[in-house]
Amino acid sequence: MIRSMTAFARQETEVDQGSISWELRSVNHRYLEMGIRLPDELRAAEPSVRARINARLGRGKVDAACRFRAKASAATPVELDTDNLARLVAACREVDAQLPQSAPLNPVELLRWPGVVREQEMDTRPLTEAALALLDKTLDELIASRETEGEKIHGLLLQRCDAISALVAQVRNCLPEIMTALRTKLEARLADLDTPADPGRLEQELVFLVQKIDVDEEMDRLDGHIMEVRDVLQRDEPVGRRLDFLMQELNREANTLGSKSAAAETTNISVELKVLIEQMREQVQNTE
């Protein structure tokens, strides 16, 4: 079943350290392109995040954002390095003595000074494991959304395939009438001439016209491409690039049909074909 490249998914969970949430957004893109935003506590997990996304998605521009909110009770207690603090206060008082007017020491500014507050490192392994597990669940949701949208695209593409096949059959049916009309028209013009026409020459001209407007090969290729589209739609793999190539081939045959057209009916059918193919191409460009 084909998948769309447009989808959104969000998951959130609670862990001992706080809450983790993932948001995944994807839109159509020629290749797989990832934009990842992680909190400082999970920076080291970026290679694992990329590997997981790359293993599950084939194409699309994917924005992955992870947020972590620490619990107030789980916050790391503030621990001062009293030796560094004493040295800093002594230096401030020495500078203060050299100034005629100075503001009093601000405790908040002192706490911001490097080395005054001892920072305790958080054990990020449990947090990383929980974040990656939640990412897998979010990817499941994103893929399910892609598949739901892909089912709609699948149905639309099959409808257009049926319509194109009907138009091809219509061209095949009207070609004998067009040939008969051309022969009648040519004979009528020759009848207006004073000189009698050579029957052999008449047949040569008719053969030339038949070769000029012969579109059997184009009709066969259109039928073949439509069969290939139907087959590709049944594959359980990313098929967007293959379908995009087939749209180009279908459009080429429709253009050739229009250039060889010898009647308004086939010209109109050629236009209808190109409209249907363009509608398919718009859907295919959003297919993984």
Summarize the entry for a quick read.
This protein has helices at residues 46-56, 82-98, 107-112, 125-191, 199-213, 216-233, 240-259, 264-284, and strands at residues 7-15, 18-27, 32-37, 60-70, 79-80, 117-118. The protein has 288 residues and is an alpha+beta fold.
Characterise the protein shown here.
The protein has 288 residues and is of the alpha+beta class. It has 3 domains: 7-74 and 124-147, Ribosomal Protein S5, domain 2, CATH 3.30.230; 79-118, no CATH class; 148-284, Up-down Bundle (Butyryl-CoA Dehydrogenase, subunit A, domain 3). 61% of the residues lie in helices and 14% in strands. The chain contains 8 helices and 6 strands; from the N terminus they run βββαββααβααααα. The protein has helices at 46-56, 82-98, 107-112, 125-191, 199-213, 216-233, 240-259, 264-284; strands spanning 7-15, 18-27, 32-37, 60-70, 79-80, 117-118. A 4-stranded mixed sheet has the order 1-2-4-3, covered by helices on one side. Strand 1 and strand 2 (18-27) form a beta hairpin. Helix 4 (125-191) runs antiparallel to helix 6 (216-233). The longest helix has 67 residues, at 125-191. The protein is elongated, with a radius of gyration of 36 Å. 20% of the residues are buried.
* Count of domain modules: 3
Query: How many E strands?
Result: 6
Our estimate of the beta-strand percent is: 5-15%
Overall geometry: elongated
Report the CATH topology name of the largest domain: Butyryl-CoA Dehydrogenase, subunit A, domain 3
Straight-line distance between termini: 11 Å
CATH class of the largest domain: Mainly Alpha
Helix share of residues? Answer: 55-70%
Provide mean pLDDT, rounded: 83
- What are the low-pLDDT stretches, counting only 5+ consecutive residues below 50? none
Please write the string of helix (H) and strand (E) elements: EEEHEEHHEHHHHH
